[in-house]
Every structure is written in C-alpha cells, then in structure tokens.
Amino acid sequence: MSIAMLLDSVASTMPDRVLVGSREGGLTAGGLASLAARGASVVRASAADAVGFVGLSGTAFPAALFASALAGVPFTPLNYRLQADQLAELAAGLGARPFLIADSQYADAVREVPNAVVVTTEEWLASARAAEEIEPEDVDDERPAVVLYTSGTTSKPKGAVLRHSHLVSYVLQTVEFAASDEEDAALISVPPYHVAGVGTVLTNTFSGRRMVYLPNFAAPEWLDVVRAERITQAMLVPTMLARVVDHLDGRPADLPTLRAIAYGGARMPGPVLEQALTALPQAAFTNAYGLTETSSTIAVLGPDDHREALAATEPAVRARLASAGRLVPGVEGQIRDELGQVLPAGETGQLWVRGGQVSGEYLGAGSVLDEQGWFHTRDEGWFDEDGYLFISGRTDDTIIRGGENIAPAEIEDVLFGHPAVKEAAVIGVPDDEWGARLVAVVVPEPGSSVDGEEIRNFVRARLRGSRTPDNVVFRTELPHTPTGKLLRRELVRDVQNGAVATTR
C-alpha cells in the first residue's frame, strides 16, 4: 500500500469533503486526488526519478507529495531557508534527473542543477490542471516514498529515507480513517521540510480533516486565522506556543472552536505549557514526540495525561507534564547504557526504538538499525514505572532551537574565520523561550581586542539570524579530553553556573 492510497481511500468515500484551504472554495478530496493524478502525469512525462519541493506550505505541497507517490518516485521537500549553494547541492543529490518544484523566489537557486527539470509552483500547478490523469503506478511498499534531510545546517546533511511501508504504518497505527467531522479543520504552521509537515498531510487527509496553512507564523495572524477559519485543531512547536502566550499577555484566547493543540519538535518549558493550558482551557493538549527517522510521532502525552498531571498533588504524576508520554501502538522502546545493556525504569540512558514506522535508513548510506531492528535515536532519557518517557537531552552535539536542528560546527567554522578568534565552540544552554540558547565560547588570539557584539555581528553577516549566537563567552582555554575531544558538557555547566562572564 502506497501513501497515495490514503488519499484514494478518502476521495472514494467522501469526494466532496474539503481537504485543503478555506471551507468555501477549498480543494476537495476528489479535487486533490485529481490534481495529484494529473501532476503525476507531468512528473512521469519528464522521466524524473525524484521530485524536490522548495517552497512554503500551500495547496501545491500535498498535491506534489501525492503526485510523486502516484508517479512512483520519492519526494523531498527541501529547506528553502538554506543558502542557494546548499539548496543546489541537496537538489543535485536527489536523483539522476530530479523534477524540482520551487516557489518563484527560490527557483533561481536550483535552476542550474545538472539534468534537472525546474518549474515554479505556479507553472507546475497550471500544467497539472491541464494534464490528463494517469493510472497510478503499482508501487511496492518498500520503495522510498519520502526523503527528508535531518539537518540543513552542514555541507553534508543526512537524508532520512522513509519508505511507503513506514509512513503507512505510522498513519494506520495512529489515525482512525474518516474520523473527522465535516467542520473539523487543522491549522498547520510547521514547514514542509519538517517531518511533521509531511506527517500532518498524511494524517489529516486519512482522517478527512480540512488543512489550512499559515506559512509564516506570527502570533496575531495565527489567532486571526483560528477565528476566521473556525480551526478545531492546531500543531505548533513550543516556540510558537510561547509566542501566542506572550501575545495574549494573560488574556483569554477567545478561540471558541479550537478543541485541540498538538505541540512537539523541542523541549516545552513548563511555565509556557502551564500558561497555555490556562489561556486555552477549552483545548485538549497533546505532546507529540518523534524523529524524522521514525516517520514522525512515536510517543504521545495525551489530553487526559495533561489534565491529570496538572491537577495532581503527587510529584511523580505532576512530573509527567514534562514527559513525552507513552509510546504509540506498534512502537517498542528500550533505554540502554553505553555498552548496550537494557536499563530498568528510572535509569537514564540512550533511547532505542523499533516498529513498522521506524526507518533508520539514510540516503546513500543504508540502514543503521541493529540486527534486531532497533534504531538508536541518540536521545537520552528514561521511562518511569508506568511507561512514560522522559527525554533529557541529545547524545550528540546537535542543538535544537525553536524546533530546528542546529549543528555547532557550521557556526564554529565561521567563528574560526575571525582574525581575533583562536579557538571557538558553540553550545546550547536551556532556554524557556527557544528551548536552547546559542552560546559561543571563544578563546581570543593573544594580544587581540574583541568584544561579544563584534563576534555576533561577524556571524550574522555570514549566516542567517537563527545561527547568530545569543551570547558570547570568553575563556583562556577550552576543556578537552586527553585525546583532544572537546568537553561541551563542561562548557554548558560553566555557563549555567555563571563560572564565566557572558557578553551580549
């Protein structure tokens, strides 16, 4: 079963149900299925072996996702926020003849990709509407459906391969077919290149729920759209929810139709969650924890869990507000130590998972599952006695800021280019607004004179704003192991304890 069958099931059952856009004039299930089939005809006629999508969320995104599946080629939404050369490099690696659909403002970045067919979003939609529908490709379940890059911050990011079997397993295990009422509508603010961007298309489509996109998030606009479109469900990363809470400033949200909010992608600060629960008392909150390599959500802290924990006086139950919840059906989890031994409940170690939706495969590198099919998430955490999963951090150096993965090496490479910088390290320090605050720890060249603002301006001029350190710390040396490995945790501890001076 391919992911295109998820749409076909809905289109054949409720063809007139609006799935994308406004209730009046939006794209119906039957209309989306027809557009995808016609779009697949365009893709197939180009002899493409992969489809890339470089753009904001909108009608073209779900249409291109399902069109690719019908054409029998993998689909990759690329991070449009990357530098032009990075975009071109990723696009060139998708296949021997990639078909690239790009918003007009990003099309020039990929026009010179060798052997690529490049069309703007508007051109592709127009050609799809004019094309004939094709018979769907008989797609093997084990063929790649989607390739998502787990990091767009280094020169060689990893492309996680999600096969049809993985994505279909995720949907069938977590969503009830056609369970949504006609008035249900989901507001989607996550970008297409995030696994949640793909996941929300598949799950909302299969449930028959209308999708409304807000490509550029801002709290006032988000609140306006919820009211205007009578949104019933919404998906936010913690930073977005914090922005909404800040904008409300203690006022009730006055969103009478909003029944459910799902959040995930980064650590949710306790105070923000409690303020959101107060500001939106009618909304049922769900924490969805997952990874790109696991086809999105693998653990859920549901609405009942939130209410029970919020009202609890028992510390262990109250603490569950900070948990990722319990594993979803079809997913198993283990906490292991560094030697691979499984640890009991309450002990912190490395999280390993397996199940039908777990891929653990990378483009050009193959599978990293162990012999029993377990995937190492590289997250550290622990289970309590009742099976609630608590994530305490990453085992690698990646910093998750505002739901976005940031590789320290990218920023460090820029810092090393400053003539007054002898050594540098970038760390993430817990932050209630962004999940992590970027701190650059700098060892200046002897005799040089440089301040933190100069360092920040230097980085900002070479990388986009989200990569600019929030703070700069100066030290006489960086801590290393005897073999030369940088001790990042020691730097985090020192900064948190105020052991070194911080310059903004």
Instruction: Work out the strand percent.
Output: 25-35%
The CATH topology name of the largest domain reads: Rossmann fold
Total tally of structural domains:
3
Average per-residue pLDDT, rounded, comes to: 91
Shape: globular
* Poorly predicted tracts of residues: none
Q: Give me the side-by-side strand order of the main sheet.
A: 10-9-11-12-13-14-15
Between the first and last Cα atoms, what is the distance in angstroms?
A: 54 Å
Helicity level, as a percent range? 25-40%
* Topology, number of strands: 27
> What is the CATH architecture assignment of the largest domain?
3-Layer(aba) Sandwich
Q: What structural category characterises the helix and strand content?
A: alpha/beta
CATH class of the largest domain: Alpha Beta
Description:
The chain has 504 residues and is of the alpha/beta class. It folds into 3 domains: 4-216, 3-Layer(aba) Sandwich (Rossmann fold); 331-394, Luciferase, domain 3 (Roll); 399-503, 2-Layer Sandwich (GMP Synthetase, Chain A, domain 3), CATH 3.30.300.30. Helix content is 32%, strand content 26%. It is built from 16 helices and 27 strands. The protein starts with a helix and ends with a strand.
Compact summary:
The protein is α/β, with parallel strands linked by helices and 504 residues long.
